[in-house]
Write a structure and sequence with these properties.
The complex is a heterodimer.
Chain A (H helix, E strand, L loop, with lengths): L2 E4 L3 E5 L4 E3 L1 E4 L4 E8 L5 E7 L5 E3 L5 E5 L4 E6 L8 E9 L7 E2 L3 E6 L1
Parallel strand pairs in A: 2-12
Antiparallel strand pairs in A: 1-4, 3-9, 5-6, 5-10, 7-8, 8-9, 10-11, 10-12
Chain B lengths: L3 E4 L2 E4 L5 E7 L5 E8 L3 E10 L2 E4 L6 E7 L2 E6 L8 E8 L6 E2 L3 E5 L1
Parallel strand pairs in B: 2-11
Antiparallel strand pairs in B: 1-3, 3-8, 4-5, 4-9, 5-6, 7-8, 9-10, 9-11
Classes of the chains: A mainly beta, B mainly beta.
Chain lengths: 114, 111
């Protein structure tokens, strides 16, 4: 079975500072990895995904993530955050061979301060 | 936004009553999913469908049933609602199994 751990429940950061949201997963089989963002009172929006190939994945809104197989991590980064990035971020994993069932982490609230 | 709607968007119901939530898509995607979101748990999969009349259980399926008689509609039913089913419910659709698009959610309160 797969599991996902987001290591920080809340991350406060000042505007224009860099940020990293940490995600570790466990799985005995190959996986797909995802980051989703949820703005208040909205559904989830896909930020980026890793399916195969290059371990550095670029997504929307200037976010990127790096897949590290040896450390079973998929950390999300942005070099300079904006107030509008304030949201909850979810890391998720699915087996690469199944029907797309996603296992989500508990979420990390990114709070960008002026 | 992907063409996905959920209805109702908000519902308050009493313990023991049946409740049906509807997910409707205009994308003709094969895969559809129901999740619930609770604080500290992220989202957890309730049921999913990989085609008309083809459904399967997720990790928190007890107390829930689903039906998919048409490609565009995926219904989630709580046969007898309990307070533990108070949650925000999200539907997702996917053209392939690995890229899901989420609806706006339904906030359900069971009193």
């Amino acid at each position: 079975a797969q599991s996902v751990t987001q290591l920080d429940s809340q991350v406060p950061v000042f505007e224009e500072a860099p940020v990293e949201l940490r995600c570790n997963y466990s799985s005995s089989v190959s996986v797909y990895l995802f980051w989703y963002v949820q703005y208040p009172n909205q559904g989830l929006q896909l930020l980026l995904k890793y399916l195969s190939g290059s371990t550095l994945v670029k997504g929307i809104n200037g976010f990127e993530a790096e897949f590290n197989k040896s450390q079973t991590s998929f950390h999300l980064r942005k070099p300079s955050v904006h107030i509008s990035d304030t949201a909850e971020y979810f890391c998720a994993v699915s087996r690469s061979s199944n029907t797309g069932k996603l296992i989500f982490g508990q979420g990390t609230t990114l709070q960008v301060k002026p | 936004d992907a063409g996905i709607t959920q209805s109702p968007r908000h519902k308050v119901t009493e313990t023991g009553t049946p409740v049906t939530l509807r997910c409707h898509q205009t994308e003709n995607h094969r895969y559809m999913y129901w999740y619930r979101q609770d604080p500290g748990h992220g989202l957890r999969l309730i049921h999913y469908s990989y085609g008309v009349k083809d459904t399967d259980k997720g990790e928190v399926s007890d107390g829930y049933s689903v039906s998919r008689s048409k490609t565009e509609d995926f219904l989630l039913t709580l046969e007898s609602a309990t307070s533990s089913q108070t949650s925000v419910y999200f539907c997702a659709i996917a053209p392939q199994s690995y890229e899901q698009y989420f609806g706006p959610g339904t906030r359900l309160t069971v009193t």
